[in-house]
Amino acid sequence: MYQQTRAGTGIRTSNEMLKLNKLNNDKRVNEIFETNEYSKFKMINGNRKIKKSKVENLVKKMRKRGWLPTVEITVNEKFQIIDGQHRFIAVQVVGIAFRYKIVENAGIDEVRETNEGSNNWALSDYVPSFASKGLKSYVQLDNFTKDFPELNLSICQMLLSNSMGNPSREKFEAGEWKVKDYNTGVLWGGYVMSLRPFFSGWRRVIFVRGLIKVLMNKPEFNFQEFLHKVELRPNMLVPCGTTNQYVDMIEQIYNYGRTKKVNLRY
After folding, report:
1. Residue 85 burial by CB count (10 A; 0-12/13-18/19+): exposed, middle or buried?
2. What dihedral do alpha carbons 43, 49, 52, 55 form, nearest 10°?
3. Over the stretch 186-215, which tens digit does the pLDDT of each residue have?
4. In b/e form, how buried is each residue of 174-210, taking b as 16+ CB within 10 angstroms?
5. What percent of the chain has pLDDT over 70?
6. 186: three-class secondary structure by DSSP
């Protein structure tokens, strides 16, 4: 087994090290180590899902260039991986030594903070991460996305917040997003799914936003009546370019055959 050492770029003489230390009086923190003792390292609960394509790409690069001297994995004192889980999996496939640094008292909060505002984590990665910490709204969102896997995260957020809008990325990444009414979200999610057989654009964000606008603002709107008319005349459901156009279309279908028309736009 490869002996664990402090990693360097080469061997320096004592005089060279003395000269380097005199030139650099900065405080030493998070020293870099090198090892291929993979077994002591652990994944951390709540981190983002592993992307197979990313691991495969890293494997190709490592087989060509080895472990880059400018790269390291960050772990805590328990050897849980804070940053670099894809690199850790790839290096085991290649079977070479890798470099790491230890940051004490780091956990899943630091994992998220490390990736806030970056392209490393998608919004969907934050859902199971916050859910693993027991944040109620994120637990509910995690369950909801599993119950409605064909709906994208943006639509799931709108349905559970019972609104047309989405939270800011900053707010969502900070764990501050809230579900307004879970049961209403499930009910409305069922409405969206029931339109699938009749309309190719049933899960377009602007269409769902239009339906939510009607459901939010028009308590007199009876979805089952609307669905019955869609079943009778599915050709009336056509792609539109804006949310308001979809609201107009919903109104036209809903009022078909009615003597007492209902205004759903205002």
Report:
1. buried
2. -50
3. 999 999 999 999 999 999 999 999 999 999
4. eeebebeebebbbebbebbeebeeebeebbbebbbbb
5. 85
6. helix
The single residue listed with the structure tokens 């916050």 is 130
How far apart (Å, rounded) are the C-alpha atoms in residues 170 and 167?
Answer: 8
Between helices 153-161 and 136-147, what is the axis angle to 10°?
120
pTM above 0.85, yes or no: no
Q: Distance (Å, rounded) from C-alpha 143 to C-alpha 145?
A: 6
Q: Which amino acid is at 118?
A: S
Going by C-alpha positions, the residue among 224, 185, 225, 229 that lies closest to residue 208 is: 185
Please give the structure tokens belonging to residue 79: 């050897």
Structure tokens at 118: 């970056």
Q: Averaged over 235-262, what is the pLDDT?
A: 93
CB 162 within 8 A of CB 191: no
- Residue 203's alpha-carbon distances to 12, 210, 243, in angstroms, are 62, 11, 13
Diameter of the chain measured on Cα atoms: 97
The helix or strand, by DSSP H or E, that contains position 52, with its residue range, turns out to be: helix 52-65
Q: Report d(CA 160, CA 107) in Å as an integer.
A: 29
Tell the residue number behind the tokens 């997003």, with chain if given: 177
